[in-house]
Design a protein that fits this description.
Blueprint lengths: L4 E5 L3 H12 L5 E5 L31 H5 L4 E3 L4 E5 L4 E4 L4 E3 L2 E4 L3 E3 L11 E2 L4 H10 L5 E5 L3 H12 L3 E6 L6 H19 L2 E4 L3 E7 L2 E7 L4 E3 L2 E4 L3 E3 L15 E3 L4 E3 L2 E3 L4 E5 L4 E3 L4 H15 L11 E6 L2 E7 L6 E7 L6 E7 L2 E8 L9 H6 L3 H7 L4
Parallel strand pairs: 1-2, 1-7, 2-3, 7-20, 9-16, 10-11, 10-16, 11-12, 18-21
Antiparallel strand pairs: 4-5, 5-6, 8-17, 13-14, 14-15, 19-20, 21-22, 23-24, 24-27, 25-26, 26-27
């Protein structure tokens, strides 16, 4: 079948990448980009750091200026979220009642934040997913206020670092024993915990939240499962997110922690998924994988565009993400499993920049750099090639 029309549901980075790649490769058919938000496509990573710090204006998060978007000759439909999909008819219905149809549909609806029971309707409780969320939180981050951040992953630790830098009294709460332990392992997670503590963040880790305290619908504190009660003027809930798939109920697609896809990111004939919402078959790993990071959204968008145009390309990523907290940049390549062994291959965690390799099942699976942007380059090949772990242990026996 010749493709003459493409509908992309989700006007963020992944969706926009699909549109740009199609046009760059010469696709001349009609393209529609449907977005739930009122904003033109924008970048999310700066929200928890530069936007909250007032180091970046909201307009600077915009991925492309209007003039560049116009050159794509795509219909841009904003402020009208998709509410259902008929996969057999290739039709999407929106909240306004509009019905959009296309030969090919790309799902790029991203994530929705997890919430605490009872948080809806409470003043002073925030989440951070959208630009509007960031602007609301930014106005509330007044120096001297007591902030409790619920969530010890990437987003929670970034928000805690940013708020602490702004002069708030910050407490970080989470179920893990160390911040970002599941993403970094215990060695680097311990370094991150030390960094936060030294900069003034109060860590209350290893426990979850039992409930929120309030007075006249205004949050006043957080009750932990450990029995401790924390006083709070503000609470940010950053407990992770869920794939935005509720609107796909009854669509006929397989939904299980995301839209289940084959290795070509195809969920059904002529229906694809990209970005945080896509759970795809990774041919090298032999399992389904869902990745939540900016690099993945771009690379999946490129892959889907190529497959729409007939290249039959499998998606075989080596994951990459980064986080900036205080004056530290942490970069991670590959996979870091809970049981991975870690070896410092450059530098010293006690004194400055360092690089760590992770090994699991007899081979190198991941790499982390701590303020080591240049140093990690010479070690990335170990992750790409799956170097034998024994080789690393022999090369760095005293590390």
């Amino acid at each position: 079948m010749t493709t003459t029309s493409v509908l992309v549901v989700g006007a963020s980075l992944g969706g926009l990448t699909v549109v740009e790649a199609l046009r760059r490769e010469g696709f001349s058919g009609s393209v529609t980009l449907l977005g739930a938000e009122r904003h033109l496509p924008y970048d999310r990573p700066p929200l928890s750091k530069r936007v909250l710090l007032s180091a970046m204006e909201p307009s600077q998060t915009q991925l492309r200026p209007q003039s560049t978007l116009d050159q794509l000759h795509a219909e841009l439909v904003l402020s009208d979220p998709a509410v259902c999909l008929d996969a057999s008819r290739h039709e999407v219905k929106t909240a306004s009642g509009r019905v959009l149809a296309a030969d090919v549909i790309v799902l790029a609806t991203g994530l929705v934040p997890r919430k605490l029971s009872g948080q809806d309707g409470l003043s002073g409780v925030y989440v951070l997913r959208t630009l509007d969320d960031a602007l609301a939180l930014k106005s509330a981050l007044v120096p001297g206020k007591k902030l409790v951040v619920v969530g010890d992953g990437v987003l929670g630790t970034e928000i805690a670092a940013t708020a602490c830098s702004l002069g708030l009294a910050v407490t970080l709460v989470g179920p893990q024993s160390l911040p970002m332990r599941s993403q970094l392992g215990p060695l680097v997670g311990s370094c991150l915990g030390t960094l936060h503590s030294l900069r003034g963040v109060n860590l209350r880790l290893g426990t979850g939240v039992a409930s929120l305290r309030s007075d006249s619908s205004v949050v006043t504190g957080v009750c932990l499962q450990s029995g401790e009660e924390l006083s709070a003027d503000l609470v940010v809930v950053a407990m992770g997110s869920l794939p935005a798939t509720d609107w796909l109920a009854g669509s006929g697609l397989q939904i299980a922690d995301g839209v289940v896809c084959d290795s070509r990111l195809r969920a059904a004939p002529n229906i694809y998924a990209v970005g945080d919402v896509a759970r795809f078959s990774h041919e090298k790993l032999g399992s389904l994988v869902r990745l939540e990071n900016r690099t993945n959204a771009v690379e999946q968008g490129l892959c889907v565009a190529a497959n729409i145009l007939g290249t039959d390309t499998p998606y075989l990523p080596v994951p990459y993400f980064w986080t900036d907290q205080f004056d530290v940049k942490i970069q991670v390549h590959g996979f870091v499993s809970a049981d991975a062994e870690a070896v410092v291959v450059e530098g010293d965690p006690a004194s400055g920049p360092f690089v760590v390799l992770y090994g699991s099942h007899g081979k190198v699976t991941g790499l982390c750099g701590w303020n080591a942007v240049r140093q990690i380059r010479q070690h990335r090949a170990h992750v790409m090639d799956g170097t034998a772990w024994q080789t690393i242990r022999e090369q760095f026996p005293t590390k």
